[in-house]
Amino acid sequence: MTTTSYAHRATAVAARAQDLSKVYGQGETQVVALNRVTVDFRQGEFTAIMGPSGSGKSTLMHCVAGLDSFTSGSVRIGDTELSTLKDKQLTQLRRDKIGFIFQAFNLLPTLTAMENITLPMDIAGRKADKEWVERVIDMIGLSGRLSHRPAQLSGGQQQRVAVARALASRPEIIFGDEPTGNLDSRSGAEVLGFLRNSVRELGQTVVMVTHDPVAASYADRVIFLADGSIVDEMLSPTADGVLDRMKAFDAKGRTS
Ligand SMILES: Nc1ncnc2c1ncn2[C@@H]1O[C@H](COP(=O)(O)OP(=O)(O)O)[C@@H](O)[C@H]1O
Ligand SMILES: [Mg+2]
């Protein structure tokens, strides 16, 4: 049997997993969370990762983002092979090259929106690319509210601040695990629109785990995971198309 490769050649790659496996536990309690996954995340592309609960979405994201170790295979961010890095170098790579957006917004309550956005760079002692940060701020759609504290902002506004914070250091790639999972559909749409614009207008690379077909439809492509393997890929997805595909997987699961 040949395994389908979801690697794309000849385009600049922001991150790549090759033959990536992650096994939890040993013996009878062993769980294969990822089973030889090969996937590329190209620069300037917005990818959604979908699949049933327990299919390995978070594990894939955490392994590619250098937040979790893996059992075999390789991961690279840009030209850097993660397995060659010592702990300190990995921490530095995560800080400099990777942006994160979480379901909980994780903003500091005592800082203003603007201070939250530049905080990671301030901590790292890095000088902000002013022009870039200004473009990010232009896009966030929070004019007049940047001096507000998180508690004075809606959920959607807070998550847009968190997205701007991830974008501010101009990372190689941004990862989000259900970044709109805590938001109503209107607030979710504001955040997703901002993410999509960051890809289209700034050339940012974004990888987002989601279970929502509407959220996935903002992406350039969707990869579907089942039992730790990539089982399908959809380009230029629509919400209806993604929903149909999910239903087809469910039906297959019931009959097999
Ligand atoms: N720390 C862990 N210890 C043992 N098993 C784990 C751990 N984390 C995840 N798993 C297992 O790995 C599989 C994939 O989990 P996960 O990546 O969280 O799936 P998803 O994000 O798609 O819901 C599941 O079977 C889960 O139970
Ligand atoms: Mg998960």
Automatic annotation (TrEMBL):
Annotated transmembrane regions: none
GO cellular component annotations of the record: membrane protein complex; plasma membrane
A Pfam entry, by short name: ABC_tran
All residue ranges annotated as the ABC transporter domain in the record: 15-252
Tagged with keyword Hydrolase: no
GO MF, one example: transmembrane transporter activity
Keyword terms: ATP-binding, Nucleotide-binding, Transport
Alphabetized PANTHER family for the sequence: ABC TRANSPORTER RELATED (PTHR24220:SF685), IMPORT ATP-BINDING PROTEIN (PTHR24220)
The name this protein goes by in its record: ABC transporter ATP-binding protein
